[in-house]
Amino acid sequence: MENKKDQPKIKKFLNFMLSPLSSLGKGLLYFFLFIFYLSLFGSFFGYFGYYLQKKIETIPFKGPIIAKLTFEGTITEKTAKEFLKKLKKVENYNQTKGILLIINSPGGAIGPTQEIYYELLHIKKEKHIPIVAFLKSIAASGGYYISLPADKIVSLPGTITGSIGVFAEWIYVGKLLNKIGIEAKIIKAGKYKDIFNPFSEPVDYKLKLINQTIYDSYYQFLEAVSKNRNIPLDKVKNLAEGKIYTGRLAKKVGLVDYIGDYYFAESLIKKLSKTKNAKIVEIAIPKNPLYQILDEGKTYLKNIYNLFFGKEIYKISY
Length: 318
Hints:
alpha/beta, 2 domains, elongated
């Protein structure tokens, strides 16, 4: 039986929620609930779709091959994981004579970018497999980073590349919540533990720490360019700072080796592979179309949910 003492409180709360002055609060509440339930349904159908997925894990060819690998889109944990599976297939196939790496990416998260970078370096140095990178429409920031292990980099004259830099995002919603009468209290152990929390104000001492992190990641990028492109670090610093280049300008400053099209890149890797009968084989892991739709929907809804509920709300990216 409902406690009569609680009735005035409940009534007061309902009146507040239903009053014209709280329309923004109602809208936010309904929106959060909508996102929450969509996320639950998205997760359910995404995991259900997983069981519909049938992956092909073997190289669809016998004999010596040149593996054609394409990275398309933003570099995230998910896209990097899928690409690394392809790289492992290539690495474990004992008749891989070369890799034609096709890149069409604006960059992305630092960790996944470096995972791809180091795996390509490993294949090149330990397996002695030559690599040619072909930069398509865009190979900027992290997209350029993953091209660095290549023995030669080929770019279209109008490709957008470079953008050697790092940035971070911190969405702060505290002021918005204050306007609708909601106050968030953060309980933490550790001075910096609430960095990037959407309810925590980005004050100077926190921003200083973030800047240190960003500049360390930035120098890792500079060092990778300097080492792999054989350009003095001081010169790389001048080329970097987030500047973008067309392929033709990138060739002039030493960021790429050749201006050419896909067929030029293909002929170049055939030459470097030193194997006349090696066939170009596109390495792909086909997906069940239904799984792909459900999995993309799950990821999209998860990102929206995380944006508003403070989990994975931040990123530091190339």
